[in-house]
């Protein structure tokens, strides 16, 4: 029944909670599957479409470039934090992959899980912003329903 | 960070899916925590209140007794199936406890998790009936939001 190599996707973002979810995964799921592949998945929001007149063009161009720079700095910083968490656990024999997606987090997460044929998805219960969550429902709710594999929803221990 | 003894609650019911969730748990969470306690939690629906006139009393009494008998047969059958699943995995050094609750499944599951100070809750994504789920939302949705620990939502592999 058990596959030899487990593929575990952890959805990471800027939140403490997603780093806690990663720790939970390393502590509870990874150690006894030496052949695990841990996929760190970060989803950037979709690029904003700007509509400006000719006078604003140069400014807009700079602003877009600055936002894109900010976006890729954010990816690097989230991935660097995640890798520090992994190093801390000393799970050196685990194969770690990084995937950065772009678009609506819930869709990108579910489609990545499907494409990879992942065995487990691990994510924080919050993330992706309070207002967006209040308006659209939480990303983790959606993924728990729609992802094609078991989903672990991890809450930050302080958030009880 | 890691506690020595992990307490894992698995919510079991009549569904194939909940047995699959138990298997997932035995396969992925239990083996590398030898000191785990696995709590099998089954929630019976709350007893129905009957309002009948005197003529119907004897019948009602028999019917209630029959329903109660049916309910406890169901508990025994679900627990027996769960224990067969556990035996199949040969995890004899895992401490197994059985808890039968009564009431609204989502409330009983969350309050049991809290009372036991459980480390992880594992459950199927469905269970507790299609119509009830359509009307009231799924039990697993509620628990993923409200249980005071990480929650694993396991879907039956055929249900993709």
TrEMBL record, chains A, B:
SUPFAM superfamilies: Adenine nucleotide alpha hydrolases-like (SSF52402)
Coiled-coil parts of chain: none
UspA domain segment(s): 6-155
CDD domains cross-referenced by the UniProt entry: USP_At3g01520-like (cd23659)
Domain of life: Eukaryota
PANTHER family xrefs: ADENINE NUCLEOTIDE ALPHA HYDROLASES-LIKE SUPERFAMILY PROTEIN
Protein name per its UniProtKB record: UspA domain-containing protein
Species per Swiss-Prot/TrEMBL record: Juglans regia
């Amino acid at each position: 029944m058990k596959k030899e190599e487990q593929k575990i996707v952890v959805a990471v973002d800027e939140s403490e909670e997603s780093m806690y979810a990663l720790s939970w995964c390393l502590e509870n799921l990874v150690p006894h599957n030496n052949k695990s592949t841990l996929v760190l998945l970060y989803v950037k929001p979709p690029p904003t479409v700007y509509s400006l007149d000719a006078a604003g063009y140069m400014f807009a161009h700079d602003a877009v470039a600055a936002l894109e720079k900010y976006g890729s700095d954010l990816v690097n910083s989230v991935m660097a934090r995640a890798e520090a968490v992994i190093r801390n656990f000393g799970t050196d024999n685990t194969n770690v992959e990084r995937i950065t997606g772009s678009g609506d987090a819930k869709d990108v997460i579910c489609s990545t899980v499907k494409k990879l044929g992942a065995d487990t998805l691990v994510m924080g219960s919050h993330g992706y912003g309070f207002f967006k969550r209040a308006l659209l429902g939480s990303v983790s709710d959606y993924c728990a329903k729609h992802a094609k594999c078991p989903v672990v929803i991890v809450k930050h221990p302080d958030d009880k």
